Amino acid sequence: MRIAIAGGTGTVGAHIVRSAESAGHEAVVLSRAAGVDLVTGAGLDLGGIDAVIDATGPSTRRTPEVIAFFESVTANLLRAEREAGVGHHVALSIVGAARIDDGYYAGKAAQERALQTGDPAGAVPWSILRTTQFFDFAEQVAVPVGRLLIVPKVRSRPVAAASVAARLVEIAAGEPVGIASDLAGPEELRIAELLRAILAARGESRRVLEVPLPGRFGKGLRDGTILPGDRARIDSVSAAEWIAGYGTARG
Ligand SMILES: NC(=O)c1ccc[n+]([C@@H]2O[C@H](COP(=O)([O-])OP(=O)(O)OC[C@H]3O[C@@H](n4cnc5c(N)ncnc54)[C@H](OP(=O)(O)O)[C@@H]3O)[C@@H](O)[C@H]2O)c1
C-alpha cells in the first residue's frame, strides 16, 4: 500500500514511517519539512495514496490555536482524501482527551469530532486510535528552570511510540474500525516518576518538581481520567525496557 504519514517527521511520525516501510508499504511523508503545509493545504496532493495516518501536532499549546490547528489539518486532509479517492483516514488521539475537552485536549476532541460528525459530503472511512502518553512525553513536557525540571502532575500508563506506530500501520492496512481499542503501556507511572527514572539511568542529577496544573485539563491529567479502561490493549514494552535502550533503538 501507499500510506501517507502526516507528521512523518515528528516523534511518533518517524516511527510510523519506519513501521510502514518494514511492513512492506510505501511511506509518503506529509509535513512542512517535506513541502506540505496541512494547516493551509499548500502542497497537499494525495493522488495514488491508499491510506492516510495523521500524526501531526501543533508547535503551540494555546488552546484556540491548538483547536484551529487540528480542525484545519483534518478538514484539509479529508478534502484531499475525497478528491483523490483515499480509502482510509487514521487519526492518532489521546486516551481521555475527548472526555476532558479542555486546554490542549480541546484540540484533540475537536479533531475527533471533525471525523465523527464533520464529513457531510460523504465520508472518507476513518479509524481513531487513542493511546496514552509516549515515554518521550516526560522530556517533551518538562520545563527547565535552572537545574530543576518542572513537569505537570500526570497519572499515566505510558507507552512506547514505536508500538503506537506499529499499531497505526496495522490499522491503516486493515478495514476502517471507527474508534479502535485504546493502546497503553504495561504499568501506571506518574510522568515525574518516569522522568526521574530516565534521568537516573543517564546518571543526571537534575531534580524533578511535579506541579498540579489548573482547570479541567490539569484535574483530568492527575485524577485518572486519561488512564485506559479495562478493554484497552496493553503493550508489553515497560519503562525499564524502554529506558534500557529499546527507546533509542525502536521506542
Ligand atoms: N506525545 C505524546 O505523548 C502523545 C500521545 C498520544 C497521542 N499524541 C498525538 O500524536 C501526535 C503527534 O505527536 P508528536 O509528539 O509525535 O508530535 P511532534 O513530535 O511535535 O511532531 C509533530 C509533527 O507535525 C508536523 N506538523 C506540524 N505543523 C504542521 C503543518 N502546519 N503542516 C504539516 N505538518 C505539520 C511536524 O512536521 P513539520 O515541522 O516538518 O511540519 C511534525 O512532523 C499529536 O497529535 C499528539 O496529540 C501524542
Précis, in short:
By secondary structure, the chain is of the alpha/beta class.
Relevant terms:
251 residues, alpha/beta, Rossmann fold, six-stranded parallel beta sheet, three-stranded mixed beta sheet, binds NADP nicotinamide-adenine-dinucleotide phosphate
Portion in helices: 25-40%
Number of domains: 1
Q: What's the CATH H-level superfamily name? A: NAD(P)-binding Rossmann-like Domain
The set of bound ligands, ions and cofactors reads:
NADP nicotinamide-adenine-dinucleotide phosphate
Shape: globular
Which percent band covers the strand fraction? 15-25%
> Could you tell me the radius of gyration in angstroms?
18 Å
Identify the CATH architecture.
Answer: 3-Layer(aba) Sandwich
- Average pLDDT taken over every residue: 95
Number of helices: 9
Structure in words:
This protein has helices at residues 11-22, 63-84, 97-100, 104-117, 137-141, 161-173, 191-201, 215-222, 239-249, and strands at 2-6, 26-30, 51-54, 88-94, 126-131, 143-145, 148-152, 155-156, 178-179, 183-184, 189-190, 207-211, 233-234. Helices cover 40% and strands 20% of the residues. It contains nine helices and 13 strands. The longest helix has 22 residues, at 63-84. By secondary structure, the protein is an alpha/beta fold. It has a single domain (2-249), classed as Rossmann fold (3-Layer(aba) Sandwich). The chain starts with a strand and ends with a helix. The relative contact order is 0.15. It is globular. Bound molecules: NADP nicotinamide-adenine-dinucleotide phosphate. NADP nicotinamide-adenine-dinucleotide phosphate binds next to helix 1, strand 4 and helix 5.
